[in-house]
Design a protein that fits this description.
This protein has helices at about 1-20, 45-55, 105-115, 130-135, 165-170, 180-185, 240-250, 265-270, 300-305, 310-320, 350-360, 380-395, 410-415, 435-440, 455-465, 470-485, and strands spanning about 25-30, 60, 70, 75-80, 85-90, 150, 155-160, 205-210, 215-220, 230-235, 255, 275-290, 325, 370-380, 400-405, 420-430, 490-500, 505, 525. The longest helix is centred in the first third of the chain and has 17 residues, at about 1-20. It has 2 domains: about 25-230 and about 500-520, Dipeptide-binding Protein, domain 1; about 280-495, Dipeptide-binding Protein, Domain 3 (Dipeptide-binding Protein, domain 3). About 30% of the residues lie in helices and about 20% in strands. Helix 9 packs antiparallel against helix 11 (about 350-360) and helix 15 runs antiparallel to helix 16. The radius of gyration is 23 Å and the shape is globular. By secondary structure, it is an alpha+beta fold.
Length: about 525
């Protein structure tokens, strides 16, 4: 995005002057995609979360294992009906410019998040808060009706629509970070420029060169700075996994956040203990544009889904053992039990292909009338490998596939605008609950890239979230999931494993289900 480049290049020069000396313990992280902003309400990717979670801190934050622990709040109480949370803020917490962090900063941030004029893509993650959805949809115009109130500077009260089992986990997400009201109001959109931005996390950004890197240093105003073992981090933009691995081997990176899977066996032998592959709460999937013929025909979507040989992708194409996905919610998700599965899950692959051909014939396609499809993915060796494999699996059906790739930012922007026929997507859980995955298929949600829409599904998701009995809630959600799978709303392909490479000199890196590793928990041996 050119406007970001223009906007921040001048301020990056100032940041360079502030960059710390070479001998400081700086963590060099291969971060993948290019962040579109440092504003927590303008983010959507894990590569942005890695930066945001170092420079901001919510009421609740995560420990090294990704469990909720007190952040800016030292304690909280929950009402007997589970709807009202009262948070006591820590004494003496400050923004990086020395101004106090107050309950009013949280009220300001939550109101800005749901205010429709700010068009925050992820506002829906906090729709459990009273009136959040109605305000976001323009049904209520008074922002003070939101269920977030400052009782005084150090006490924040949040009222929910319904008792929500995962609410503390949702508060660890960047949509729940406070914002420096005094800076945002003074600087407007420019508040995130280096030189203007102030943050309340363990670190603060001092340099941002779009397309290259973001640099952070310790925030001396944070309450626990004395315990930080790492002086700062440099988050590098690099979407070429092969190049990243070369730079890691040359000692330029301390951590890779992904790697070319065809190198996994080599790394196990030659870099023992450095490649981390662990179970992960995430789904790799393809969306199909349900608003665009012929993909609006569910027979076409189901045929494409049935012809994907998921069993070979993890072990053979990727080589890191990802498990085939036949559900929308990954197994093992909290508050759910066993997910729903597609009805054809256990058919032999040859029967799946035969059925897929039959469905396409019924939809009017065949050898004389091939189905033309454009498959889009964001630039990455592993995504390309999978796209090539799936295109070849579709070929016997008479599907003529054109592959198109774009950098991450462009790819997701096109998907959100509905400009993609079939698109690669991935979802990493923001909190451990089925709602986080099921929400992706709700009508109007920004991340519903395939634009699939079903009023009955939407109704069940609402009904499930209003249900306080967890067993009944899970049953309603499972019924909704089954409906989406029967409609081939999207095509689940595999459940993620997290893939990191960690230098032996880094200590404190703990594999966890959400693959979140904040710099504050790490240390570095010389």
């Amino acid at each position: 995005m050119n406007h970001f480049a223009k906007k921040f290049l001048a301020s990056a020069m100032l940041g360079t002057l502030l960059a710390f000396s070479a001998h400081a313990a700086t963590l060099n992280i291969h971060n993948g995609g290019d962040p579109q902003s440092l504003d927590p309400q303008k983010l959507s990717g894990d590569w942005e979360n890695r930066i945001a979670g170092d420079i901001f801190e919510g009421l609740v934050t995560e420990d090294a294992k990704d469990n909720p622990i007190p952040g800016q709040a030292e304690s909280w109480t929950i009402s007997p009906d589970g709807k009202v949370y009262t948070f006591k803020l820590r004494d003496g917490i400050k923004w990086s410019d020395g101004q106090p962090v107050t309950a009013g900063d949280f009220v300001f941030a939550f109101q800005r998040l749901v205010d429709p004029k700010n068009a925050a893509d992820y506002a829906y993650l906090q729709f459990t808060i009273k009136n959040a959805e109605k305000i976001n949809k323009g049904e209520i115009t008074d922002l003070n009706q939101l269920g977030v109130k400052a009782i005084d500077d150090k006490t924040l009260e949040i009222t929910l629509e319904n008792s929500t089992p995962y609410f503390l986990n949702a508060l660890m997400h960047y949509t729940a970070y406070p914002l420096p009201k005094h800076v945002v109001e003074a600087k407007g959109q420019d508040w995130v420029k280096i030189g203007n931005i102030v943050t309340n996390g363990p670190y603060k950004p001092v340099e941002w060169v779009p397309g290259s890197h973001v640099t952070t240093v310790k925030n001396d105003q944070w309450y626990d700075t004395k315990d930080l073992k790492i002086d700062g981090a440099k988050f590098f933009v690099l979407e070429d996994q092969e190049a990243a691995l070369k730079r890691y081997r040359a000692g330029e990176f301390d951590i890779l956040t992904d790697f070319p899977t065809d190198q996994y066996e080599w790394m196990k032998k030659n870099l023992p203990g450095q490649a981390h592959v662990a179970p992960f709460s995430g789904l790799y999937y393809y969306v199909v544009n349900s608003q665009k013929p012929p993909f609006s025909d569910k027979r076409v979507r189901q045929a494409l889904s049935m012809a994907i040989n998921r069993e070979v992708i993890g072990p053979q194409i990727l080589g890191t053992g990802e498990l085939p996905a036949y559900s929308w919610v990954p197994p093992g998700t909290a508050n759910y039990g066993e997910p729903a599965y597609v009805s054809w899950k256990d058919l032999p692959y040859s029967e799946k292909v035969a059925e897929a051909k039959k469905l396409l014939t019924e939809a009017g396609f065949g050898p004389d009338k091939p189905l033309h499809a454009v498959l889009s993915y964001n630039t990455n060796d592993n995504h390309k490998r999978i796209a090539v494999a799936i295109a070849s699996m579709w070929k016997p059906l008479g599907v003529d596939v054109e592959l198109v790739n774009a950098e991450t930012k462009v790819h997701y922007d096109q998907m959100q605008r509905g400009q993609v026929e079939i698109g690669r997507a991935g979802w990493l859980a923001d909190y451990n609950d089925p709602d986080n995955f099921l929400n992706l298929l709700v009508t109007g949600v920004q991340m519903n890239y395939g634009r699939w829409s079903n009023p009955e599904y939407d109704k069940m998701i609402k009904e499930g979230n209003a249900e306080t009995d967890l067993t009944k809630r899970a049953a309603i959600f499972k019924k909704a999931e089954q409906l989406a799978l029967d409609e081939s709303a999207a095509l689940p392909i595999y459940y993620y494993v997290s893939k990191n490479v960690v230098s032996p000199k880094i200590e404190g890196f703990v594999d966890n289900i959400q693959d979140i590793h904040r710099t504050r928990w790490l240390s570095m041996k010389e």
